[in-house]
# Entry
Amino acid sequence: MTSPEEVLQTVREALIAGDLDTAEASLKDASKRWKKEPEFAARYAGILVKQGKHAQALKVYRKVMKQAPERLDACKGAAECAIQLGKAKQAEKLYSRATGLGMSLDEATLGISRSLVLRSQHHTAWEKAISQFKASGNKSKELHALLKEISPQTGNSVPVLDQFDSEILDVELEGVRRVAPDPRLSSHSFSAGSIEAMAGVDRTTLVSSGEQIGDELLAAVAGERGHTSLGIDLSALSQPSEVSPQDSTDVVEDELDLSEASQTEESNNGESNVVTDDDPFDDWPEFDI
# Structure
């Protein structure tokens, strides 16, 4: 009998290869075999969305919501499918429910406003979108795009987008460390109720190879400058310390002072009570009286 881990491995390999049909068949069979585990059904609905089968995906998402009401991904997926199918009222209810499950206000307002646009309620959609856009500091690009889209129908001018804090979002950071996305994370979910969450596995643990960082990372690379692989300049460590003549003289004088002080201390400690016979006036001239 195939285990859940083997099913997930098969689906992962199929997604990497771009074989959506195999991934769909595997998850569909797994969702029927393990009916009490909503993770397979949620992933099955996600594959249906990628295939453009939004009606079928909506049904699967709603089944997951009944079985696991706390899953935000299922509620969000159902709402997006409802938007694609033109079911505006149902989408508005689903986005309102997703707000209570932790969806951001910007994303929820965007979904509700789009459901209002589908019902040709452009002015109401504008009021909701502009209110949340200003509340978030004029930084939501998605709400700003929606306002630009419906501004001709409402006759209102679109406020300026504050791009000072959101400019970094335009930079694609996916290829900084790797050329392609990590396949180990492409098919994993870490939301509440997922297999990874129940197992106590997070993204960092999943991609960790378990290899400890060795001292070779700090070893100097070949060259005369002494740079390490981390870019740290260690050339100063290989150079002998240089002492100037003046500094060496000071060191010698300090040593002499210390030796004299120690001798004085020894003489004071060992011979301070010894009485000498030397006459202190021997060198004085003699005078006849």
DSSP finds 14 helices and no strands in the chain. Residues 245-271 form the longest helix (27 residues).
